Amino acid sequence: QVQLVESGGGLVQPGGSLRLSCAVSGFTLETDTIGWFRQGPGKEREGVSCISTNDARTYYADSVKDRFTIFTGNAKNTVYLEMNSLKPEDTAVYYCAAKRYWSDGTWCLVSLGEYDSWGQGTQVTVSS
Fold first, then answer.
1. 89 in helix, strand or coil?
2. How big is the CA angle at 59 (ends 75 and 110), to the nearest 5 degrees?
3. Which helix (H) or strand (E) holds 40?
4. CB distance 39 to 93 below 8 Å
5. Taking Cα atoms as reference points, which of 15, 10, 22, 16 lies closest to residue 77?
6. pLDDT score recorded for residue 110
7. Measuring CA to CA, how many Å separate 33 from each of 7, 50, 72, 112?
8. Which distant-in-sequence residues (6+ apart) come within 8 Å of 44 by Cβ?
């Protein structure tokens, strides 16, 4: 059974940093797509970043480019989202999602329906 579990959310002041983790179980990440998405209060869910677990190719939404970094670390089957210079508008529930397939292109940021599995989300609140 595929399961994705996010962690690392919390309350942080503007300008601060957080690192989110997405732990994947049920299959081994090899040639897959992992995406991070967020849904702010009263807003639609939007793509933040996505990564190919095969060659680490990445894509970022313009709103987070140069502030957020997606990567796979030493822990197998875990994908991270490092978030720096956080702004109040980054406040949202953050979700990770998995697609058992990778093809190059920004679809991984916008095609939410293409993903096979989703986590339950972790709350990020940026406030002073």
1. helix
2. 110
3. none
4. yes
5. 22
6. 92
7. 19, 7, 11, 12
8. none
Query: Which two tokens mark 22?
Result: 């997405």
Helix (H, G, I), strand (E, B) or coil at 113: helix
Please count the other Cβ atoms lying within 10 Å of the Cβ belonging to residue 5: 14
The residues, ordered by sequence, that sit 6+ positions from 113 with a Cβ below 8 Å of its Cβ are: none
Using pLDDT thresholds of 50, 70 and 90, give the confidence band for residue 73. Answer: confident
Side chain identity at residue 55, one-letter code: D
Q: Residue 98's pLDDT is what?
A: 96
Which helix (H) or strand (E) is 60 found in, with range?
strand 58-60
Q: Does residue 30 have a pLDDT over 90?
A: no
Pairing of strands 18-25, 78-83: antiparallel
